[in-house]
Amino acid sequence: MNNEGKYKGRMKLTDGICIYCGRLADGNICDKCLSERNIERLKKEVLFKVEGRVKLNEFKKFILISIARHNLSVLEQHFNQRNLYPEISGRIWLNANSKSVVGSFEIHSGEIVDIVKADVVHQITYKSRSKHTVLKWKAIYKSEGIMSGVATTHALKNLYDAGIDINKLKIESVKLDLT
Ligand SMILES: [Zn+2]
């Protein structure tokens, strides 16, 4: 496709905003966020914008399932206290009144999971390895919070498995222009 054709194709779309960073973007994803992801894999994905009330322990469970579904019981032992949370550099991190790393271990993917002791969690950001799913949990009162972001069908299943009532979430499918 020459540049002119590409340009015309893009002009047909109404200006949207990037589902990942919120900047104005044609086709609902900006060039920067697109460059950080595998376009061929993204084309095969079904994405949803999700938002709704989720409890902190439910979101923590979702992260543990997402990290290591097949080793969940082992993983849960590492985080068996309420104030222990997983962090993975560049992928999963939390904002809290205080934070300290009390241990770490390697998972199947070769990533290092830090065991973080945290007091008063304000926010947790989760990115899947593919970066297709990006979900943020923000506290509204104590352990009650709002989760929002972009999820794949796989992530929706993990949210469900974490005990989150999917029917109570606002879920809308996203169409990306990746041609
Ligand atoms: Zn973006």
Mean pLDDT: 90
- Termini separation comes to 10 Å
How many helices does DSSP assign?
6
> What are the bound molecules?
zinc ion
By helix and strand content, what is the structural category? alpha+beta
In total, the number of strands is 9
Order of helices and strands: HEEHHEHHEEEEEHE
Task: Tell me what you see in this structure.
It is a single chain. This protein is an alpha+beta fold and 179 residues long. It folds into two domains: 1-36, no CATH class; 44-174, no CATH class. The chain is 27% helix and 39% strand. It contains six helices and nine strands, in the order αββααβααβββββαβ. The strands form two sheets. Strands 3, 4, 5, 6, 7, 8 and 9 form a seven-stranded antiparallel sheet that branches. Strands 1-2 form a two-stranded antiparallel ribbon. A hairpin with a 6-residue loop joins β6 (112-127) and β7. α4 (56-68) packs across α6 (153-161). The longest helix has 13 residues, at 56-68. The protein is globular and about 45 Å long. The chain starts with a helix and ends in a 5-residue tail after the last strand. Mean pLDDT is 90; it is low at 1-14. The structure holds zinc ion.
Quick summary:
The protein has 179 residues and is of the alpha+beta class. It contains 6 helices and 9 strands. Helix 4 (56-68) crosses helix 6 (153-161).
Please render the helix and strand layout as text:
Elements: H1 3-11, E1 16-17, E2 24-25, H2 31-35, H3 39-43, E3 47-55, H4 56-68, H5 72-78, E4 84-87, E5 92-106, E6 112-127, E7 134-141, E8 144-152, H6 153-161, E9 170-174
Antiparallel strand pairs: 1-2, 3-8, 3-9, 4-6, 5-6, 6-7, 7-8
Residues 18, 20-21, 23, 25, 30, 32-33 line the site of zinc ion (ZN).
